Amino acid sequence: MTDGKTEKRLWDVANKLRANSKLSSAEYSTPVLGLIFLRYADFKFTNKQKEFETRVKKTGRQIGKIDYQAEGVLYLPEKARYSYLLNLPEGADIGQAINDAMDAIEEENTDLKGVLSKGYTKFDNDTLIALLKAFSKIDNSQEGDVFGKIYEYFLGKFAMAEGQKGGEFFTPISIVKLIVEIIEPFHGEILDPACGSGGMFVQSARFVERHKKSPSSEISIYGQDKLEKHVNLCKMNLAVQGLDRDIKEANTFYEDIHKSVGKFDFVMANPPFNVHGVDYEKVKGDPRWSLGLPSTDNANYLWIQQFWSALNDKGRAGFVMANSASDARGNEAEIRKKLIEKNAIDIMVAVGSNFFYTVTLPCTLWFLDNDKVNTKRKDKVLFIDARHIFKQIDRAHRDFTPGQIDKIAGSVR
Fold first, then answer.
1. Helix axes 228-240, 199-210, angle to 10 degrees
2. What is the predicted pLDDT for the residue at 263?
3. What is this structure's pTM?
4. What angle do CA 222, 228, 232 make, to 5 degrees?
5. How many angstroms separate the CA atoms of 35 and 28, rounded?
6. 292 neighbors 336 (Cβ within 8 angstroms)
C-alpha cells in the first residue's frame, strides 16, 4: 500500500518532464502509462525469477516461458527487462529500444497483442531516461498493489488534464467507490459495457480485498468499449492490478459481445450521456431492449435497458446517468414505469455538479436490484439527495471523502 506520496512524487516528475517537452498531454499519457506497466511487469518477473532460481537449485529442472505464464506472470525476454533499458549505452536510441521491448512482450504474451504503447520515438532520449530512472525508484519491497495505485493515480491526472476527452475513459474514483460500496460485488461475474480504462473493475477488486478475499477467485471481469484506445488502457490497467479479464472492442448498441442477457451478478458503468444518432432499425429485435425503444434521438434508455437486461435473477447494477433521464417523457417514461413495476429500480442518488471531467452538470446514480422483491424495499424506491455532500478539490472539481462515501452507502443498508 502507499500513503499517496509516492504517486504524487512520481507525477510531479513526469508532469515537469512533459512541460519541458513538445508533447501534448494526449501524446504523453499512454506511453507513460506503458512505462508504469513495464515496470510492474518487470517487478513481477524479477520476483518470480528469484523464486524459480531457488527451485532449480533444489530440483535441477530448467524453467521456461510456460512456467512463468502458468503462475500468471508475463514472460519478459532480455531486451524487455527494465534493467536492460536503464543500462543502455550513451547514444542509444532509447525510444526505439522501448518500442522493441513492448513488441517483444506482445510476441511472448499473445493476450497483449496490439495492446501496448509504441509511441516512444516521439520522446527525446533525455525525457525517457529521466522517466525510466524515476519509475525505477518505486520501492520493490512494497506489495505489487503499489503499481496499481500509481497507474490509477496517473490515469486520473491525465484524464483531468485532457478534460472532455479524459472523461470518456476515466470515472472519478470517489464516484466509482460509492457505486461499489452500494452494490457490494462480493462474488460473481461483473460487466461494464462502457468500460473505459476499467475503474469499475479495479474498485470492485479492492472491495473484495478489503473483505479479506482474493479477487481472482471471487470475481470474473467482462467489459467492452467501442474505442480501441480505451480497450487497451483497460487491459493494461487490469494487468497492472493483477486481474484476469475478458475485455473486447465493440459498439455496445449494435453488438452484445458477451451475450449478456440474464447472465451477470453485477453491472457497473458510466456510459456517455445523451448519445445521438443510434440507428434504431439496427437494434430492433435485440432482446436487450425488450421494454421498448426510446421515442427520441437519445440513447439513455438503451443504456439503462442494457444494464437491467444483463442482470440475472438476483443481479444488482449501479451506473451514472444524466439527470434528464429521471423524468424523460414518451416511450422513456413507459420504460421507466415498467422497471418500477418489476421492482427493479432500488435506489436513486442525486449527485452535485463538478464531479466529472466531461460535464459540469449534476447527475444521478441509479441502482437496480432484481432481488429487491425479497428485501425491505419491496415496492419502494429510496431517493438520496447528496447534492450538497462533497469535498472541493479545486475551483472546477469535487469528489467525495471516504467518510462521505461511508455515510451515503451506510444509509442504504
1. 20
2. 98
3. 0.88
4. 65
5. 11
6. no
